[in-house]
């Protein structure tokens, strides 16, 4: 029997009362509407395109020379960073107003090496959630879906552990990671056209961790349920509906779902660098079809750049076609749920993850599959974006973060600063030590001197769903606490700069969980 929505103990996140921390820089809630004058894009940056009336022509020439110099450094920077981190193959694309710049390095596979180039397909994982969300918004615009309506309006057969949740969960709560059930379920329900319907039927097995809307906790399962909404409303299988609603209208001809389509093209495979420095190819390559709405697409770097342009330009394609209204595209980039202290960012819009750097709103996502990691970051006020695609763990995510930070600093002068952690003694750290667990991971937190040491072991269920190569246990991750809070930051290793927080029961003040990799993980002992 499931518990009711009022059965959970209320707990506090990030050392606040659940309301604090909801303050953002001046750009986070600002409209994403691109601004133009006399046909030129206007941005609040010294690198914006200047008109012929620019009063400082020498400065204009200086800026142009600076941009050309930075453009010339990209290939070298990407190569050096990939080699430093041991990533066999990478692709990077940068959007700067009307210009694009690309850099490619390495090979598709160490077993069958081909040079990575602009035609190379990478799996980009969870950035695909933004594709599912745009399809939903197209249905919203048609009047056939309401974001605030209960999911059962469209999927009446939905069954969950908690009947009250099944009755009341809304479409929007699927798209902003606030559904509250176990999110990392990758059950393979076969390759038939009923794969997503069968996955949704299996969701009755997922544990409800928190009430809907209570906390942002990254949720893959929610997006497969959103994919089922698309199927039910359109009467078409998810992939066909996506092709008609999103891929074809936006012109994404090199963005593909199925292995049978990918295998006739140049594509990368995932790798892992082992502790002894050797690199192995990870298997399986293909993900379960039931996961397509949560992130089952592959694409080239130029197609990922085209996707960025579509969002930067308010739902317009390169030829000016308005596929989705600018108002809805902008709504995707505005907060719908707040997540202070989370590694996901300060807030979630509609799929997009929102943060603030120096008072400027940054809109991002990213994704991972079996050994492939993607980064996707936009700065709408500057009409700027960087996408990066990599084919190795554990350092693929670190490559993505470092090349993103390099690009933001060199092109826009935006430098992300980290809070300064504090040393704490064992007595102060002991309450956090213990065991935590969710569907995908077993998490052990131990005291190590003046900080915490975290070890994440994939759960047996996770390994069974994704294959034997998913059993990798990374080296322990050092967590250093931030002053006067339950928040932490990682200061070294492949998770460098990752953030999170512990949660407490307000009545007992005991630690009840950890927010790790953007997910809520309850304490088990």
Number of strands: 24
Helix-strand category: alpha+beta
Radius of gyration: 22 Å
Poorly predicted runs are 1-27, 35-63
Describe this entry's structure for a reader.
- Helix 1 runs antiparallel to helix 12, helix 2 runs parallel beside helix 6 and helix 5 crosses helix 6.
- The N terminus is likely disordered.
- Strand 15 and strand 16 form a beta hairpin.
- The protein is α+β, with helices and mostly antiparallel strands and 525 residues long.
- It is built from 14 helices and 24 strands.
- It is 28% helix and 22% strand.
- Strands 1, 17, 18, 19, 20, 21, 22, 23 and 24 form a 9-stranded antiparallel β-sheet that branches.
Structural descriptors:
disordered N terminus; alpha+beta; 525 residues; nine-stranded antiparallel sheet; eight-stranded antiparallel sheet; 28% helix
């Amino acid at each position: 029997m499931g518990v009711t929505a009022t059965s959970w103990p209320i707990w506090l996140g990030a050392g606040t009362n659940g309301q604090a921390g909801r303050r953002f820089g001046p750009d986070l809630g600002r409209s994403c509407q691109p601004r133009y004058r006399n046909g030129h894009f206007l941005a609040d940056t010294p690198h914006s395109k200047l008109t012929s009336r620019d009063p400082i022509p020498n400065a204009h020439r200086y800026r142009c020379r600076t941009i050309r110099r930075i453009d010339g450094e990209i290939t070298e920077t990407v190569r050096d960073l990939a080699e430093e981190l041991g990533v066999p193959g990478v692709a990077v694309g940068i959007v700067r107003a009307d210009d694009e710049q690309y850099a490619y390095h390495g090979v598709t596979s160490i077993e069958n090496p081909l040079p990575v180039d602009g035609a190379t397909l990478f799996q980009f994982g969870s950035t695909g959630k933004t594709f599912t969300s745009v399809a939903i918004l197209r249905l919203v615009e048609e009047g056939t879906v309401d974001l605030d309506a209960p999911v059962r309006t469209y999927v009446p057969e939905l069954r969950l552990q908690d009947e009250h949740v099944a009755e009341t969960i809304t479409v929007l709560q699927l798209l902003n990671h606030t559904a509250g059930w176990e999110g990392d379920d990758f059950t393979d329900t076969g390759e038939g056209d009923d794969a997503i319907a069968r996955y949704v039927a299996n969701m009755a097995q997922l544990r409800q961790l928190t009430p809907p809307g209570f906390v942002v906790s990254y949720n893959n399962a929610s997006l497969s349920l959103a994919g089922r909404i698309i199927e039910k409303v359109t009467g078409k299988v998810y992939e066909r509906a996506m092709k008609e609603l999103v891929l074809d209208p936006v012109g994404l001809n090199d963005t593909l779902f199925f292995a049978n389509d990918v295998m006739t093209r140049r594509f990368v495979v995932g790798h892992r660098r082992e502790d002894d420095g050797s690199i192995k190819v990870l298997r399986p390559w293909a993900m379960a079809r039931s996961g397509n709405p949560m992130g089952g697409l592959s694409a080239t770097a130029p197609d990922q750049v085209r996707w960025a342009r579509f969002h930067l330009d308010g739902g317009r394609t390169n030829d000016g076609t308005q596929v989705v209204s600018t108002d809805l595209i902008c709504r995707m980039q505005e907060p719908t749920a707040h997540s202070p202290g989370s590694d996901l960012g300060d807030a979630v819009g509609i799929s997009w993850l929102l943060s603030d750097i120096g008072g400027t709103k940054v809109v991002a996502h990213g994704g991972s599959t079996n050994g492939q990691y993607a980064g996707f970051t936009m700065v709408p006020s500057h009409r700027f974006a960087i996408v990066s695609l990599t084919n190795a763990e554990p350092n693929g995510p670190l490559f993505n973060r470092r090349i993103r930070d390099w690009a933001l600093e060199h092109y826009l002068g935006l430098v992300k600063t980290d809070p300064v952690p504090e040393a704490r003694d064992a007595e102060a750290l002991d309450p956090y030590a213990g065991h935590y667990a969710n569907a995908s991971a077993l998490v052990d937190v131990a005291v190590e001197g003046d900080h915490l040491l975290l070890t994440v072991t994939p759960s047996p269920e996770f390994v069974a769903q994704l294959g034997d190569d998913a059993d990798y246990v990374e080296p322990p991750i050092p967590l250093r606490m931030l002053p006067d809070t339950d928040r932490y930051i990682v200061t070294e290793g492949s998770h460098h700069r990752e953030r999170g927080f512990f949660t407490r029961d307000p009545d007992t003040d005991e630690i009840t969980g950890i927010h790790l990799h953007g997910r809520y993980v309850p304490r088990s002992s």
